[in-house]
Amino acid sequence: MTPTTSFSQRFESALQKALPRESRMLVFLVVGVVAVGVSIWLFPHYIPLTAVVVPLVLSNQVLGPRQLPWFVVFCLLVLALLVPQQPMITARTAMTVVILFALGFITLLASFRRTQLGVGGLRGESMLVDLRDRILRQGGMPALPSTWYAASELRSAGGTPFAGDFIVTARHGERLDVAVVDVSGKGEQAGTRALLLSGAMGGLLGALAPEEFLEAANEFLLRQDWEEGFATAVHLSLHLDTGRFAIRSAGHPPAALRVAGSGRWSVLEAEGSALGLIEGSTYEPCEGVMRPGDALLLYTDGMVETRHRDIMLGVDKMLGQAEQLLRGQFDGGATRLIDALGGRNDDRALLLVHRR
């Protein structure tokens, strides 16, 4: 080990112990700006003023909202000191300076917005990604007996990873509980409310009896006091040993049942007000039994409703597609159905349950 390497390693280790991560990044970026500034000062013919953009962009990704404004001001101060040292100040040089200051101002505005959250850059994005992944995991199907098949699919408006539709599941011994929820709004507009509701409803689904779930969810939404604080939901409680099921709906499109004997789909009407609108709402079940070969579909309105089509006409179209796409082959059927139906400008969620 050379003395130089040993000294650099000791210096880096001491710096890591003395300063937190963001402070270390700030030190490195300040040193980088000074190095860029000195290089532009010494070699103005070879290194342009726009080199200052590199540490400015990096700071926007790695610094928190407290350090970022001061670093941007420091970068702009270094830029102001470098302008008089240019060999020739032309209109092109002046426009470059104006653009660089504009970029700095935009970065300052972004840092002020991040102050409300308290984190920024890559850390803030990783938090949102983690929350999104939690929503998707809650919609995953638990392990089921070999005589049952269940799959869920979710598509968001505009292709964004954040959606107002979500699915939560829970298994209690031989009982499977699933809720398909549609939060008011679309895509990113409803994404923040969906993040909160998915966690709350996942907890309620795993802790309450089936007849209490929607009532408790309704009370939870009423306490939030949101301007657009309502959601629709359909709740399925299925006994895996007997095939008996109960479906409760809160202002949601009706579930659909395929009876193997006739090979036809029928609509299961279960009535109830949307969540978050009426205090003390009750939700009566629609009950039945799934026999071998039967299938159930639960979905959100993005699957069946468009601006130019009534929701019940959309349900008829969906059931017609289901007869064609699921005939004799239910595995992968949820993916085939959600890809074939619904508009790309609306969130879509679908649950398919089949008793083999």
Put the structure in a nutshell:
47% of the residues lie in helices and 19% in strands. By secondary structure, the protein is an alpha+beta fold.
Topology, pairings included?
Layout: H1 3-18, H2 21-42, H3 53-62, H4 67-82, H5 91-115, H6 121-138, E1 148-155, E2 165-172, E3 175-183, H7 187-207, H8 210-224, E4 231-239, E5 244-250, E6 255-259, E7 264-268, E8 286-289, E9 295-299, H9 311-325, H10 333-340, E10 348-355
Antiparallel strand pairs: 1-10, 2-3, 3-4, 4-5, 5-8, 6-7, 6-9, 9-10
Helix pairs in contact: 2-3, 2-4, 3-4, 3-5, 4-5, 6-7, 7-8, 9-10
The SSE string, one letter per element, is HHHHHHEEEHHEEEEEEHHE
Strand order of the largest sheet: 1-10-9-6-7
Beta-strand fraction estimate: 15-25%
Number of strands: 10
Tell me what the structure shows.
The chain has 356 residues and is of the alpha+beta class. Helices cover 47% and strands 19% of the residues. It is built from 10 helices and 10 strands. It has helices spanning 3-18, 21-42, 53-62, 67-82, 91-115, 121-138, 187-207, 210-224, 311-325, 333-340; strands at residues 148-155, 165-172, 175-183, 231-239, 244-250, 255-259, 264-268, 286-289, 295-299, 348-355. The strands form 2 sheets. Strands 1-10-9-6-7 form a 5-stranded antiparallel beta sheet, with helices on one face. A 5-stranded antiparallel beta sheet has the order 2-3-4-5-8. Helix 7 (187-207) packs across helix 8 (210-224) and helix 9 packs across helix 10 (333-340). The longest helix has 25 residues, at 91-115. The radius of gyration is 28 Å and the shape is elongated.
